[in-house]
């Protein structure tokens, strides 16, 4: 028996004891790493999506995207806007011809587009009033007397004035260069 007891030395017990602490240590290490990952992920999610600054950044990002979409639509409309001449005088000449045809839809195409890429409401309303009062010929005659004002003009803006009989400017016509299509458009009349 003594021999049998000697065979049952405490070695296996020591080996088991040595293994157990390692298993506990690994469980603790894995648990700590999981907790750190969850804490870091929670902080990241809070900072990225739920904090007041994150919500403000998301709101600003949506505004930037909306502005960029609007800008792209506007640029596309301006690139496709081919009504007008290569010079301010050519645009006025074409405009006078169209006025005499009394076609409001065509006349509006010679005016600078609105921010939405469509004809401006004030232009359409003004032309509707001209139509109701049957003044297309009168407006065409007035615009045909316009004289280029070099001192008021610049590289992308052209001013024309229509003087009365005393030589005093009675009307001002302003044209702007559509830099996207290269044609001159009437800004105001």
Strand and helix layout:
Elements lengths: L1 H6 L3 H40 L1 H28 L8 H14 L2 H5 L12 H12 L3 H9 L2 E3 L7 E7 L5 E10 L4 E6 L1
Antiparallel strand pairs: 1-2, 2-3, 3-4
Write up this protein.
By secondary structure, this protein is an alpha+beta fold. It folds into two domains: 12-79; 88-188. It is built from seven helices and four strands; from the N terminus they run αααααααββββ. The chain has helices at 2-7, 11-50, 52-79, 88-101, 104-108, 121-132, 136-144; strands at residues 147-149, 157-163, 169-178, 183-188. A four-stranded antiparallel β-sheet has the order 1-2-3-4, with helices on one face. α4 packs antiparallel against α7. The termini are far apart.
Shape annotation: rod-shaped
Overall structural class, as computed from helix and strand content, comes to: alpha+beta
The number of helical segments is: 7
**What low-confidence regions span 5 or more consecutive residues with pLDDT below 50?**
none
The proportion of residues forming helix, as a percent range, comes to 55-70%
- How many discrete structural domains? 2
H and E order: HHHHHHHEEEE
Spatially, the strands of the biggest sheet line up as: 1-2-3-4
Averaging pLDDT over every residue, what do you get? 85
Radius of gyration: 39 Å
Oligomer: single chain
What is the number of beta strands?
4
Main sheet?
4 strands, antiparallel
- Measured by DSSP, the beta-strand proportion falls in 5-15%
> End-to-end distance, in Å?
122 Å
List keywords for this structure.
4-stranded antiparallel sheet, about 190 residues, 2 domains, alpha+beta
């Amino acid at each position: 028996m003594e021999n049998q007891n000697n065979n049952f030395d405490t070695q296996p017990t020591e080996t088991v004891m040595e293994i157990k602490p390692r298993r506990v240590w690994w469980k603790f290490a894995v648990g700590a790493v999981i907790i750190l990952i969850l804490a870091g992920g929670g902080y990241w999610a809070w900072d990225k999506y739920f904090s007041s600054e994150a919500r403000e950044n998301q709101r600003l990002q949506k505004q930037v995207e909306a502005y960029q979409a609007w800008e792209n639509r506007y640029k596309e409309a301006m690139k496709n806007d081919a009504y007008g001449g290569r010079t301010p005088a050519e645009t006025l000449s074409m405009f006078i011809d169209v006025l005499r045809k009394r076609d409001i839809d065509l006349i509006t195409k010679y005016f600078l587009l609105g921010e939405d890429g469509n004809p401006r409401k004030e232009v359409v309303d003004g032309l509707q009033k001209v139509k109701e009062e049957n003044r297309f010929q009168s407006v065409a005659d007035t615009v045909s007397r316009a004289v280029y004002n070099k001192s008021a003009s610049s590289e992308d803006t052209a001013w024309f004035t229509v003087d009365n009989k005393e030589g005093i400017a009675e009307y001002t016509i302003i044209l702007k260069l559509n830099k996207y299509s290269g044609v001159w458009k009437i800004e105001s009349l």
